[in-house]
Amino acid sequence: MKKALVIRGDFYHPSDKVDPLIDKCFTSSEWKVVKTDRARDLFEDSYDLAMFFTNGRPEGETDLTNSEQSAIVKMVREGMGIMFVHAGLVLIEEDSPFYTELNSGRFAGHSKKHVSLTTAPIRNVSHPITDGVTPLTAVDEHYYINVNFSKVTALMLSASEEGTTLGSWCSEVGQGKVFSLIPGHTFAALETPQMQEIIENAILWETGLSANASRN
Predict the structure, then answer these.
(1) Which of 28, 57, 92, 193 is deepest in the core (most CB within 10 A)?
(2) What are the residue ranges spanned by the domains of the chain?
(3) Is pTM, for the whole model, over 0.70?
């Protein structure tokens, strides 16, 4: 059995926004899924996949230290998959192990208002996460991000009246795989079939499972 830790739930991104999507993405008895608002729960057990939908710092706790981030980087190097969706990219500092060794992308700001945001696969880029995926369009928060393009594979672009930014990227770190996605602030974005398809494809890519094993 595979085990996933889903880190979600904070003031601006409550768990009831994310949980319906997670429940749709994990329908197989192949998986044991643990939901939490606390990133440090990663140190309490071993997991095949970690999914950050928030920064994982509940009220009263501090951010993950660089030492703790390095321990998570080690987990990924040894084969754990990890993904950062929307608010999961927040509080990744420029000099932190999450940025320099793992995700190679970090939150830099966001649109002042919700806008119509379209996140679409980049033409001529073929990848199991995005192959066959149609553009995801929803009223959402447009994140601006800093990315070390030399370390990642660019997968999608996010475009709105605010401009065009990288919308999704991935990389391999040791034996593990890393995936990041910009949209995901609103119910409108999280409830699209494209969001479910992208997350399901990312789960399959990161864990090496077949579609039948993951979804049936």
Answers:
(1) 92
(2) 2-215
(3) yes
